[in-house]
Structure formats: structure tokens, C-alpha cells
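One such given next:
>
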Amino acid sequence: MPKYLQVGFSELDIPLGKGDELQVKVNMDEHSIVLLMLFARKDWLIKLKIISYNALMHGYCSHRRVDEARKIFDSMTSRNMAPNIRSSNIMINGYCTMTKIDDAIHLFLEMHRKELQPDVVTYSSLLKGLFRVGRCSTALELFDELQVVGLKPNFYTYCNLLKGLCQHQHVKRAFLLLDELEPKREDLHISYYSILMDALCRDGKLGFVPMWQYLPNSARDTSQDQILRPPAA
């Protein structure tokens, strides 16, 4: 193997690692120099490998082949690559999608043992999985824990929570959650109201609840209705 690579314009010698006598002699432009310096660092190579492994796991999980994804996940440790938060989230979401909730919870607990702090994505995926298998009380406890540890629920967290409550006939609890969000206008989204209205329609109860009063001011504004209305046939 040649001990140098020629690409570009200016010349640069970059050591590949401490104690490594082999150096790369490169002719290149300034952008290529920066890239090579990054690739020459061992930590960047590890990060690139982890990104590749995460992409493979995500692909397997997207095709519902979660067992193959887990093999890749486990092989990372044997190759001196510690799975990161993204790796764990991919696996947890894959397990929840396949309703393998016990495997998802086991991995969630394993994250704590390895001092890898779960983030809001981790909790949101678990909420979806717990509701999917009908473990509503556990899901609500997890939602409370999310806030206790200092994380802020995001759009997907609330959507999973509202959908889960409505799917298991806890529409009143979903409305209470909406009432709790009312003072926090920045947290409100029209999708939340769509979830609740869909649940009421399925239950044939839409006419008994004045949903209009729950809509944010932006949704109540009718000043642009004439402009938005489609032209008459």
C-alpha cells in the first residue's frame, strides 16, 4: 500500500495516530485538508462507524426485522463501539412498533444501568408502545417520570399520549390534559384537537362537547374564511 495519496493542490503531512510511523502525504485543496484531518482522528472514525450502524438498524426496524437490528446493536459493543442514545432509541422504537414492549422496557432500564440518559424521544416511543399493548397506567406513570427528570414533552409526546388515551376510552382524561395545556399556549397544536374530535366522532359524542371553546385563537379566527373558501362551481 502506498504511504501517500495525491489529490488537489497544496501539500500536507498528517500523522494517523500517536506512535504510528505511517504518515499520509497529500496534495489537496483546503476543504480536502479539513476533511482528512477529521478522518485521521480515531474518535471521528468511531462516530462515523456508529452512524453507519445506526443507519443499518433503522433500515431493519423500518422493515420490521427488529431481531436483525438487535444483532447489529449487540455487535457494536464487541467492536469497541458503545451504542449512543440514537442507537438505543432506534431499537426501542422498533420494539414498540412490533409490540415487543418488554424488550423495549428492558433496553430502557439497561440505558439507566449504563448511565445513558434517555431523552424525550425515548419516552415518546415507549408511551406509544405501552398504549399499543393496553398498559395505560404504566404509560401515564412514564409520562409523569418524563417531567420529573426534567424533560419537556414535545409534539410527538402529546400526540402519542392523547391518541393512546382516546384509543382506550379515556377521552375525559385526554380533555383534562388539554385543560392543563391551555395556559401554555406554546404547547398547543391543532393536531391535538383533531385527535380528540376524531375520538368523539367515533364514539358518536361530538355534539355533546363544545369543542369550539377548546380551539386556540388562531383556529377560531374566521376573518380569512372568504378568501380561503373555494370558488363556487
User: Anything to note?
Assistant: The CA atoms of residues 64 and 112 lie 26 Å apart. The first helix runs from residue 30 to 39. The two ends are 74 Å apart (CA to CA).
